[in-house]
Amino acid sequence: MTITDPDARTAATMSGAEITDEALAAWVREIAELTQPDAIHVCDGSQEEYDRLTDELVEAGTFIRLDESRRPRSFLARSEPSDVARVESRTFICSEKEVDAGPTNNWVDPAQMRAELAEVFAGSMRGRTMYVVPFSMGPVGGPISRVGVELTDSPYVVVSMRIMTRMGAEALAQVGRGADWVPAVHSVGMPLVDDDGLRREDVPWPCNDTKYIVHYPETREIWSYGSGYGGNALLGKKAYALRIASVLGRDEGWLAEHMLVLKITGPDGRVYHLAAAFPSACGKTNLAMLRPTIPGWKVETIGDDIAWMRPGEDGRLYAINPEAGFFGVAPGTGEMTNPTAVAALEHDVVFTNVALTDDGDVWWEGLTDEVPAHLTDWQGQAWTPDSGRPAAHPNSRFTVRADQAPSIAPEWEDLGGVPLDVILFGGRRATNVPLVAESFDWEHGVFIGATVSSEQTAAAEGAVGALRRDPFAMLPFCGYNMADYWGHWLAMGERLGSHAPRIFQVNWFRKGADGSYLWPGFGDNARVLEWALRRVNGEVDAVEAPTGRLPRPQDLNLEGLELTDEQLEALFAVDRASWLAEADLTEEYFAQFGDRLPAEMTRQLDQLRARLG
Ligand code: GDP
Ligand code: PGA
Ligand code: MN
Ligand code: MN
């Protein structure tokens, strides 16, 4: 089959699965006319297709095939040094009205943005293949699941989407059956044929210095240009499952959240489910795969980054993981910290921006205590321990199917999701925020979520370590006005009533005077989860502090930990002066939302101040 443009500028050959849906066929044609690819391939999601694409990526120099005996069917990609993280400054929520995007999002008038994008996308796929990537977020056909179609000129994106989503023929069939689907267009922005018809050589990681990550919340469309990096280019993930889905959730009465979901079983066999929102690179993947250091407890993984949650028939809040894979931070992932992830990464992995060992395997800071004497770093340069720079990029990532994690819960694909007992909000705070505090009630929990600050990480462009507000860990991902989003959470609490999960604040990252972490973290975080569940069960009392309820010293299981009394005290210290200063900053922060700010948030702030005295 050939799609022929009347003025003969595009004549793209077509291959792959057959599109039967008229609307989808028309849209594919329209985008092909705009972007002018040489060929169009409709992905069926098969192993053969994956193998062919990875072969082509190796051929093109985008992928390095790792040693088959050490890391079977696995690859290393090295991005352009400028294309290593999400670009929040170039991420736009183009709602009809600016106030609907709110003060925390970049906004451009949608008509103006459409005009700009029409220009940058014109001819942007020349000389390349445009892949049609049908995908389902959530198990195909599930009542909470949703489909989308990404058009992309990046085979790296196609391969990654097959790992991260349910991609291919089944999702395409859903579109054919009339399911609502979200259109998403992606181009790396580096055509191989210029305006005069001259061809140029491709590069291993094509991208463009100009980037756009654009969302139209009313029409539910996504357009991404200029980047190949996961968070910018795998459009099922942040763009759809968070930014667009948060808008769907607002309109339809559910929640799309930047949360891991885990199942935890106690020594008595009781099963609980917990969701936790931490900003990017603040511990979600690690907590989702936690191996408890306290006996009798077991954690299994449902999801590590995104949760879609809605009230079930019994009135409780149910969560699904809309993804099918993990796009995890590599540095810091090792046998001591996250042995589950290490086991998940034995085969069939795409690594991006980690280091290459001399025997064809991968390495990153924290994988092993012993540092290899010689490596090739993430930029392809020779590296030794005294090179004075990290071998792997701080935001280097692994992409792997979820069911490769030995911790995956049998119910991780349950169509209706799992009922939540506990929700955690956290961030990376060297000071002020205690290890754990229970909220007084749902409204106070929403206030805690709304006022989270966290030190910035390498997951997005910007100064690492700078403290910023990241409400609900959704700052870069909320597709509408953040104040309305808080209102939506408050309304959800009213709907859930006594069935609502209990909300806690946690902080694994508090530091002592010497600058080192006070809390061992990782597997020992199970001690905090245990306390939270004992609170849920009404087994233990708590100490009322101005910022929430803290554990009584005897209730937190510290057996086997080498923690001095001073360290323990420092972990839970609530310094009134610092918290009053934070309250002033919160007042300033809230002011930008004007009359959209729910009155309840102001009430919570007043109460916090009153408790602080
Ligand atoms: P995510 O991006 O939110 O999924 O965060 P990850 O789980 O990938 O963790 C990001 C970084 O934080 C990694 O380098 C981890 O090793 C580190 N990290 C995760 N959990 C803990 C913890 O409990 N304590 C400390 N100190 N570091 C942690
Ligand atoms: P993360 O996911 O939360 O695991 O870091 C990617 C991101 O948020 O950029
Ligand atoms: Mn994330
Ligand atoms: Mn993660």
TrEMBL record:
GO terms for molecular function: GTP binding; kinase activity; manganese ion binding; phosphoenolpyruvate carboxykinase (GTP) activity. The keyword Translocase does not apply. One of its GO terms (cellular component) is cytosol. The active site is at residue 282. Its EC number is 4.1.1.32. It comes from Georgenia muralis. It is an enzyme of class 4 (lyase). This is Phosphoenolpyruvate carboxykinase [GTP]. GTP binds at residues 281-286, 397, 428, 522-525.
